Automatic annotation (TrEMBL):
Pfam families the UniProt entry points to: Alpha-mann_mid, Ams1-like_1st, Glyco_hydro38C2, Glyco_hydro_38C, Glyco_hydro_38N
Similarity-based family: Belongs to the glycosyl hydrolase 38 family.
Origin species: Patellaria atrata CBS 101060
Assigned GO CC terms: fungal-type vacuole membrane
Keywords: Glycosidase, Hydrolase, Metal-binding
Enzyme class, UniProt record, top EC level: hydrolase
Main function: Degrades free oligosaccharides in the vacuole.
Listed GO MF terms: alpha-mannosidase activity; carbohydrate binding; metal ion binding
Catalytic activity from the UniProt record: Hydrolysis of terminal, non-reducing alpha-D-mannose residues in alpha-D-mannosides
EC number: 3.2.1.24
Protein name: Alpha-mannosidase
Gene Ontology BP terms: mannose metabolic process; oligosaccharide catabolic process
CDD domains assigned to the protein according to its UniProt record, in alphabetical order: GH38N_AMII_ScAms1_like
Record-annotated Glycoside hydrolase family 38 central domain positions: 550-638
Amino acid sequence: MASSPSYPKLVDRPKGQQIHHLYLDRIKQFISGGQYAQHNLPGKLYEGRASGGESVKLSVYSPPNLERPNFKEATSHDFKPTKVGEVFGPSWSTHWFRIQLRVPSDLKDKEHLEFHWDANNEGLIWTEDGVPVHGLTGGGERVEYILPKEWYDGEEHVFYIEMACNKMFGNAPGGDSIQPPNPNLYYRLGTADIVAVNLEARALHIDFWMIGDGAREFPGNSWESHEALQVCLAIMDAFIAGNGSKESIVEGRKIARKYLGDHVDSAKVYDSEKEPLVYGIGHCHIDTCWLWPWAETKRKVVRSWTNQCDLLDRYPELRFCASSAQQWKWLEQLYPAAFDRVKAKVKEGTFQPVGGSWVEHDTNMPSGESLVRQFLYGQRYFESRFGQRCRTFWLPDTFGYSSQLPQICRLAGMSRFFTQKLSWNNINNFPHTTFNWVSLDGTQVLCHMTPAETYTASAHFGDVKRSITQHKSMDQDNTSLLVFGKGDGGGGPTWEHIEKLRRLRGISDTVGLLPRVKMGNSVEDFFDQLQKKAENGLDFVTWYGELYFELHRGTYTTQANNKRNNRRSEVILHDVEYLATLASLKSAWKDSKFAETKYKYPKKEIDEMWEATLLCQFHDCLPGSSIEMCYDDSDELYAKLFKTGERLLTEALQELGFDKNFSIKNKSVPLNTLSWSRCELVKMPPFPNGPVYCVSGGGRNNPSLLPLSVPNPVLGASIEEVRKGVYKLANRHFEVEVSDGVITSLYDIQARREVIPKGKKAGQLVIFDDKPLYWQAWDVEVYHLDSRTELPVHKVSVVEGGPARVSLVAETKISDRSWVKTTISLSGACFDDVAYVKLESEVEWRETMKFLKVEFPVNVMNTEASYETQFGIVRRPTHYNTSWDMAKFEVCCHKWADLSENGYGVSILNDSKYGFATVGNLMRLSLLRAPKAPDAHADMGRHHISYAILPHSGPLDHRTVRTAFNFNNPMKVYSHPDKQSVVPLLSAFNIIGDKSLIIDTVKRGEDDEDVSAGDFPARKGRSVILRVYDSLGGRARGKLYWGKLQISKAYKCNVLEDDEDEVDIVEDGMAIKVDLRAFEVATFRLQL
Ligand SMILES: [Zn+2]
């Protein structure tokens, strides 16, 4: 019988307690670089290496002029020998390498061979026959390509690498990636080796790293932390005892299992029954343009997504999601073989489309209709290619969230929303992780913001830990999404990320304390679970209205030209669709004088125009945070768009019988593409002895022009210099005093009310020093307000003396290089009870880090101001009571902002601006910024900006809403030989009832048989789509008319044009009833 070990009576020798922090530091040695690296695990990771010579023969073709030729074109050229150590450039150039690879005999029997390539830039591996198979990101980010086993045969094998001379974040000159790119960077090819990998050593590396993180990141007073340290020390001891032998590495892995469990070498680790909390999903956030142009994004997509196809083959638990239909379409068009590979994975369910939008767009500035089209084009793309729509809107990285997104999402088939960016707020901490987000109209979506607070997690121990420690909704639910993978050309998840997550799940199940990660689910699965909880009675917290982002407020203003083009493209698309609808159905009106012709609704061109508009709304393009190259690209797209748009307008108008060129022989028609009648001053086409201006009149049933040549007490405006430097401009509505070029008095005659506070100046230009903490193009920081400086006018001159219009020009010098000429005008056309003072500024802008704004102090008191947003109004404070109020020191508006009190108010209209502030009774429109990064020349040059002061008796109402539409869509004059033939068409679509109801869009049905682009089965017959909304925030009722257009059926549908409810046709077949909630957006489909 063995005697049990006895507890000795006498101590053998002294034994000390571990000095904790020393041992904690010591374990870093085992896997890191530095002086001991070769004597620790890093020295064992590779068993052999071959470079140059017969093993790796390199030759190169360098296309000229920064061209990016395709495979066929590139490989048709001669390749010249090259080698490791050679330098390639400049920035943005492309170099095609042919690699002739022969595995040397000493590596032939190794277990695992990789080809390592690192030139500190991006690359794409192509097979010899032209299939792109794998992306590479230099600087150690992703440099390995696993060699096929067939290549271990000692024979020569050939493949190609397409090298792009840019890094993940472009070509920034130094360590600061948002500085403008250096056009002359060169890249040294540092590595082109065949490498034999010791897989056990590599695995032990990950084991040790994760256990070491447990020692470092679990609470210092936890047993789990101390245990992790002891396991790491034991692994090191075994390695030292075995002198780093293969056996000692195997022994180390055995020891690691104490902490990781037995299953971390496969996806089996996820099979335990225990309830997971964190749902891992692979992702690669590829900015559609940013610090590189679109052309590079197209390559980043194929590089990243081919990597993922490879990883999905090797790791069955991985799920990868990709958003942005545009990126999918680029892959489909440019890399069909890669697209087929992706498509097969989509079918398997491992590669998952997500998001339902065309691009990950900005949501502050696009119009309501643009947001609708982001989803219409996105969802239709995904459905046409993969037979499925997305149910979750995916927008991790954008700079604020419109209050109408929940409604539009639901109308586009998405009831859930994923995002993250609000964690960047630099004043207040947003309080929820999972919540119901509620639109202006009361519609909700289930929103989740990942508590790991990143959409490019490296699947670190800390990311998983933070999924619980930063979870803000744990009183209701403790689950979260962990979105991991390198973004922007980093190529998405790496094998390392996936291996780490296996260990982390092992730790959760073996020692606990860490939230359990689950893989193998989709984003949709994750939200399905949340939605099920909501359906089963979990009453998630609500957040009403805008998710205002407390950072990046400069993005409402930066890159003014691009923003103006966005507004203009939205206007022209509205007109093209409206007029093309009339033209394509012109014979379908009862008693129509038009015969059927060959004219076809120009669906293809309209799609191209929309796709261009939607692309430019990408969240670094429209906000102005991209490099200069991106704006060269978008300028080109917009120029093409406007050219196409003008052509389509001309074609549609000709189809409706209008003269191609204005002719005084025929009747003049002021063309009104909006659905209410307009009486306003219209600029005439030039013709000999003709008037410069006329007034539109006659309503929608007899649109005509009235001359404005005689002074008339009802019509006409006047101007006189009442004192030196003081001008009085007057019309039926206002008396305006302009002193020294600014408005010192604006007297509303009917309201008998002075609009400008005594001693204050409206139209005053002010300039601010504008140096935010870091993100120049993005941010304007609150302290810029302290540097306000008034810009004095130095010259005033009268330009137009009336009676049609009076105007004067005020000239302001900003600096030696910059100036502003502002035309202040009053119109003589005043039939309606709406009038405004118009200001048009021409600006030559050459400043550095300055912010130009224009001020309007008004005699109105309210603690809230109103701003137009998509399909509605958002109200924000005019004071700085709390930090939440103060954070909104600069906000986004669309065509107008308004400050009203009981009985009276003032609206400020604009034609191209988005930044605004109302502080007390001071309204301030933001005009131009001058950031120098990432575009060194942002906004330099000439600008044309129109804005207006619209005072009104009574509350904010349809007058502001409609006048702002008019202001952005000035009427043009055409001539027609038989006006009465076209009037029934032009006046057909309108609403009688509450004036808050707006017909925003008139278009043809996407899938009408004479319209369809063929992506979906055609829908029999012809139809008209009308988008209508309540613009003021109250129940709105009326009747929607279509004149004598012969309609057989009418449906209320969603924005994807799925019929939902049939609507009764009333008024002898000429109308339907409309009854909307406050701020509801409704889509009607009228079937002919
Ligand atoms: Zn982004």
